[in-house]
Amino acid sequence: MRRLVLVRHGESRWNAEGRVQGQACAGLSSLGHAQARVTAAALAAAYPDAEVVSSDLLRATESAAPLAAELHRSPRSEPRLRERSFGDWEERLRDEIAVEDSERWQRWLAGEDVIGEIGGETGQQLGERVAPVLQELLQATPAGEVTIVVTHGGTIWHGLHVALRLPIPTLGGVANSSVSELIAHESDAVTAEDLRGAPAVLDRWNEVAHLPVELRTAWKPRSTPADAPPIGR
Fold first, then answer.
1. CATH no., domain 2-215
2. CA trace torsion 108, 214, 55, 25 (10° rounding)
3. How far is 21 from 13, CA to CA, in rounded Å?
4. Structure confidence by residue, pLDDT tens digits, 175-185
5. Active-site pick, 11, 51, 70, 83
6. Considering the chain, what is the average pLDDT of its residues?
7. Adjacent-strand bridge partners of 53
8. 98-138, pLDDT tens digit by residue?
């Protein structure tokens, strides 16, 4: 069995401020750093020989750093695991966008993917960028081994919907420092076409049991960051 463990970064400073991030980045908040440390300890205890791959954006590399230290290894940077681009909305406060681009913002809150209209990536484009990376990483993980991927909510959500050919929306939200996991039972099980055609399954989703309650950033429909998955924004 091979495992691909997908971890969303800890709370970022811009998550806490209500600011759209996309591929812009200001790093983790103090809460995010605490989440990353606790998550690192839990994952290192469960998977002491795991390899670590991280998005190259700061909030992901800061989340991966304590895990790499626990495992005594350097994480591999993978730019293809970046969050989607949010075009003209990046770095802006959600409240500001709601006033200055209100019609489009309301369509976004209602579930319409409007990001292509403002120069960013659509959800489908994001999924098609990420799904092959997930396939590559799972395929490259040796039998009996684990690869831990530290990345972003949209990357995980859209990537898995495309990779597993799930109708949108199937999966729920992706909390900060949550853990999701793909497993494959045979070394040659993952095909170049997709993951669902092989004995690869989503073994767990959005798990936060490793975090004490005071470190959990609850996934709430009205407060979900704009660069998180498009469910109940």
1. 3.40.50.1240
2. 60
3. 10
4. 999 999 999 97
5. 83
6. 90
7. 76, 149
8. 999 999 999 999 999 999 999 999 999 999 999 999 999 99
Q: What percent of the chain clears pLDDT 70, i.e. is strictly above it? A: 87
Cα angle 79, 84, 89 (rounded to 5 degrees) comes to: 130
Both structure tokens of 49 = 């020989």
pLDDT over 90 at 50, yes or no: yes
Inform me whether the pLDDT recorded for 224 exceeds 50.
no
Q: How many residues does the chain have?
A: 233
pTM for the predicted model, two decimal places: 0.90
Active site residue 9: yes
Predicted local distance difference test score (pLDDT) of residue 217? 87
Cβ(119)–Cβ(88) below 8 Å: yes
Phi, psi of 4, rounded to the nearest 5 degrees = -120, 110
Rounded to whole angstroms, the Cα distance separating 139 from 31 reads 34
Contacts with 170 (C-beta within 8 Å, 6 or more apart), sequence order? 161
pLDDT beyond 80 at 225: no
Please enumerate in sequence order all residues whose Cβ is within 8 A of that of 25, keeping only pairs 6 or more positions apart, or say none: 12, 14, 57, 58, 59
**What residue segments make up the domains of the chain, in order of their start?**
2-215
Is 152 a known active-site residue? no
The tokens describing 194, both together, are: 């997709």
Gap between the Cα atoms of 13 and 24, Å rounded: 12
> Which amino acid, residue 95?
D
Phi/psi zone of residue 179: left (φ > 0), alpha (ψ -120 to 50 degrees), beta?
beta
Strand-pairing partners, residue 207, are 179
